[in-house]
Amino acid sequence: MTAARRRAVWIAFLLAPALVVMTLFVAWPLLAAFRYAFYGFNGLAAAQFVGLQNFREVLTEAPFAAWTWRAFQHNVIVFTVLMVAQNGLAYLIAFALLKTLPGHRVHQVIVFLPVVLSAVIVGFLWKLFLHPLFGLVNQALLLVGIHGPPWLGDESTALGSIIFTNAWHWMGFPALIFLAGMQRISRETLEAARIDGATDRVLMTRIIWPLVAPSTTIVVILTFIGSFNWFELPYVMAGLSGSPGGATDVLGLYFYRTAFGNVSSGLQDFGHGSALAVLMFVFIAVVSALALRVLRRREIEA
């Protein structure tokens, strides 16, 4: 056996475990979901081929269509708020860390620390913090004479409370991505801008922002994918039904509830659930590809 062939065999041997795991737990379930989306189900068994009926029902027919579009609207709200508030603040934090103020390394650790926590732990803790009777948030508001609402029990505040929790949990991730992009900018460029009289605002908007285009691409794509795959925090903090009154229902919860049932209904519908999963996969893949193409063009122009 030649050296090149031995090397190829060794590489195949190293890759085989990962390929087996990916095939069993990613590729096979994905292909199964595509197949099940075209079948009607009798309990746990596929009954008959129904073509595009499952897709048509979850998109256009009652009661599925109303649930689908409500959950989709909530995902759009999540993405919009996280892009503007979470990532906007992360950009400002990254700029502050770039200035290497005293203790900036400690601040980097503090900013990133929530990211390493489990989403389940974060959701459970913030559910306690937001409790209307003994929660830390309402207790703090009482000190200044404000009676806080039942944050997770009110339809007007429930989704916003979970979005805030998500921003607290993940803000350190885009902050460090932006910081890494800023640190790649040469010191000479920044110093020249300072000599020309550029303020912090001009520096952030006119000089640094175009030069961190690759970091922006990563942040936008990951935020979009994460927003439309949202599941753990809404599930832990509001439950599988998206309470109260569906105000926190998102596509991930709706898909899981449809495919595997919940405590209240106990019904399982793999056909409609698989159709939802396929629609989510196609939507996220197509929009991510288009956004990546547009943002890559911006990188070249910048």
TrEMBL record:
- What is one cellular component GO term in this UniProt entry? plasma membrane
The alphabetical list of record keywords is: Cell membrane, Membrane, Transmembrane, Transmembrane helix, Transport
A Gene Ontology annotation in the biological process aspect, one of them, is: transmembrane transport
Keyword Transmembrane helix in annotation = yes
Q: Which InterPro entries match?
A: ABC_transporter_permease, MetI-like, MetI-like_sf
Recorded topology in the membrane: Multi-pass membrane protein
Signal peptide bounds: none
Q: Does the keyword Transport apply?
A: yes
Question: Transmembrane region positions?
Answer: 9-30, 76-97, 109-126, 158-180, 207-231, 275-295
Q: Where in the cell is it found?
A: Cell membrane
* Chain ranges of the ABC transmembrane type-1 domain: 72-291
Which chain positions lie within coiled-coil regions? Answer: none
Q: Which family is this protein grouped under?
A: Belongs to the binding-protein-dependent transport system permease family.
The protein, known as: Sugar ABC transporter permease
Species this protein is from: Limobrevibacterium gyesilva
> Lineage of this protein's species?
Bacteria, Pseudomonadati, Pseudomonadota, Alphaproteobacteria, Acetobacterales
